[in-house]
Amino acid sequence: MRKALVIGIDNYPYDPLEGCVNDAVCVASLLKKNEDGSPNFDVRLITNPSDRQDIPTTRRLIDELFETHSDVALFYYAGHGLLKSTGGYIITSDFKTHNEEIPMSEILGLAINSRARSKIIILDCCHAGSFAESNLGNSSISNLCDELTVITASRDIESADEIGGHGVFTSLLIDALQGGAADIRGHITAGSIYAYIDSALGAWAQRPIFKTNVSRFVPIRSINPKIPLEKLRRIPKYFPKPENEFKLDPSYEPTSEKAIAFKCEIFKDLQDFESEGLVKPVDEEHMYYAAMNSKSCKLTALGYHYWRLVKQNKL
Length: 315
What we know:
Blueprint: E1 2-8, H1 20-32, E2 42-46, H2 55-67, E3 72-78, E4 81-84, E5 87-90, E6 102-103, H3 104-112, E7 118-124, E8 133-136, E9 139-142, E10 148-152, E11 162-163, E12 166-167, H4 168-180, E13 187-189, H5 190-200, E14 209-213, E15 219-222, H6 229-232, H7 235-238, E16 245-247, H8 261-275, E17 279-282, H9 287-292, E18 296-299, H10 301-311
Parallel strand pairs: 1-2, 1-3, 3-7, 7-10
Antiparallel strand pairs: 4-5, 5-6, 8-9, 10-14, 11-12, 13-15, 16-18, 17-18
Helix pairs in contact: 1-4, 4-5
């Protein structure tokens, strides 16, 4: 069982936002199903004032997310964040000056005591990087339980910006969930999401933060594989040993007068591998010339990785 609580709040009485509801709706839609239509997370989406975005209700929903047994419990929040000397806070729509907010430390405590196997927390709010931080003299330390991953839109001292009706961070998160962060098998994990977002934001922009204490990454969403798995499993057939080169000649190239049908089918596999960085031609720039000039191709480091997965029956 995979559960997700997705909250987006725009309707603040003093400083309304514009993109958090849009962000939450998009994220919830992507989490509900994988690209092939198979069910993914059982999502509870909270966006409208009628959904009761007050402090007691939000506390109860977060508690319900983490209190029950589940394979994955994911919490996404887009809204205002606040940093005080006592730590970071998320702010609900009933916030008033000097009113109580929800401490990020409280959410961390619920995650630490959660019965879920994996816990994922994604925060798109100002000062989100203060989540799970404790001061230790002039420095800070992160407090993470086993199998907890945290991705935040910004560092503890930074704001989280909105552009064009979406948060800068979540617009990249959406792209990542749509496939930008997928590996060749179509798996999208917290690690690949962060890598995707990190590479898109420059040194002078808000900086996302990634904190994790996991033994393995679980897929957050899956898209259709870039190369069908049955084709990936043929890698050791073409390369019995990872250091082997596959000898080519003009009979593998479909446009050649010497083309042979079954060899052209093999060459199509090799070209697909090359397009995803698994194979590269030897002493030629393109696979076409490697075939026409009777050269060869070989596995890349990434290709060796997938060769090993197949040989170990992990793919």
